[in-house]
């Protein structure tokens, strides 16, 4: 499982925007593209998607640019990913818009995918833009470290 480059770049750009006065100052796509290394056309595309999702407020013209629409502590990694990728759905079973699985009628795993999907989404929703913009890296909790270790042992 891997995020698309577009989702990754959106997180990088939003994190950089959050570092600029907590997202209260206006920044522009050109400046963020230069600061982050995200190609300018991609940065412009992301500004449009993030604005449509209500995560940033965009103003055109002289003195224009964009800023976060709410404090970085209230914007999560899940919010940013969903703004770019759409709803988080690990399989088509949990995506209410699609039901194109050939096993749909007889699958015994399908009832469990929602739990797994909610756990992944919950983990992403548990990380805020404020945490990502901090100068010190996130430190996993003891429970998260045990889960990671358990997964490595089981693999």
TrEMBL record:
This protein's GO CC annotations: cytosol
GO molecular function: DNA-binding transcription factor activity
InterPro entries: SUF_FeS_clus_asmbl_reg, TR_Rrf2-type_CS, Tscrpt_reg_Rrf2, WH-like_DNA-bd_sf, WH_DNA-bd_sf
SUPFAM superfamilies associated with the record: Winged helix' DNA-binding domain
PANTHER family: TRANSCRIPTIONAL REGULATOR, WINGED HELIX-TURN-HELIX TRANSCRIPTIONAL REGULATOR, RRF2 FAMILY
Family annotation (NCBIfam families): rrf2_super (TIGR00738), suf_reg_Xantho (TIGR02944)
Protein name: HTH-type transcriptional regulator CymR
Annotated source species: Sphingomonas mucosissima
Gene transcribed to yield this protein: cymR_1
